[in-house]
Recover the amino acids of this structure.
């Protein structure tokens, strides 16, 4: 079952969707999409349905409608919107909240994860670890470079990374090693889109969520 919902952030209101488990549950998942598309189709839709079947409330919000709107976002915007998404799930009775974040969303989650989040799952996070090898020049120009270990994230974190992504597996390994409770799952033959094998992505993500 799902319902249309709204995320209130200051004077702004963003459309969203909440997938609801059939049985009562206090577990929630917030999805944070990447820059190239909204959170309502493709792997996000499939994952949301599968997670709800496993007893999770799954919330997705479209906090930007165009590249121009995304360009206007500040770090403070990202921080408050992420915190509001977590608070929304708390208001629905979720005492345990996990965040699943894709690409740009992964960078936002690493930089602005609210306190009280229980688990973090990153799908091909769009951030470069300092010293990472085999990174295309275009990616170096577009993505911020960070020193692994500087993120203030101290919750169990799983990174899913395709080995056919433009961003190298070496980069994901360095990010995982810099997180106190980080681990990396490599997805053979998967690219950055995560569209080649939905089932595998969903399986590896669900297996890391709290039961």
């Amino acid at each position: 079952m799902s319902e249309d919902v709204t995320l209130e952030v200051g004077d702004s209101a963003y459309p969203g969707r909440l997938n609801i488990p059939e049985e009562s549950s206090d577990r929630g998942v917030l999805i944070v999409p990447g820059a190239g598309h909204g959170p309502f189709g493709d792997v996000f839709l499939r994952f949301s349905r599968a997670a709800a079947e496993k007893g999770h409330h799954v919330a997705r919000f479209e906090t930007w409608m165009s590249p121009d709107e995304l360009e206007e976002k500040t770090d403070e915007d990202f921080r408050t919107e992420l915190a509001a998404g977590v608070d929304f799930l708390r208001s629905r009775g979720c005492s345990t909240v996990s965040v699943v974040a894709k690409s740009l969303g992964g960078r936002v989650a690493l930089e602005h994860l609210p306190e009280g989040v229980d688990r973090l799952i990153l799908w091909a996070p769009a951030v470069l670890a300092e010293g990472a090898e085999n990174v295309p020049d275009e990616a170096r120009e577009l993505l911020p470079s960070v020193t692994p270990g500087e993120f203030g994230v101290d919750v169990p974190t799983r990174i899913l990374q395709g080995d056919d992504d433009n961003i190298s597996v070496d980069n994901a390994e360095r990010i995982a090693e810099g997180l106190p409770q980080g681990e990396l799952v490599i997805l053979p033959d998967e690219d950055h889109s995560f569209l080649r094998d939905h089932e595998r992505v969903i399986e590896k993500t669900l297996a890391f969520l709290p039961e």
Notes: The two ends are 20 Å apart (CA to CA). The first strand starts at residue 2 and ends at 9.
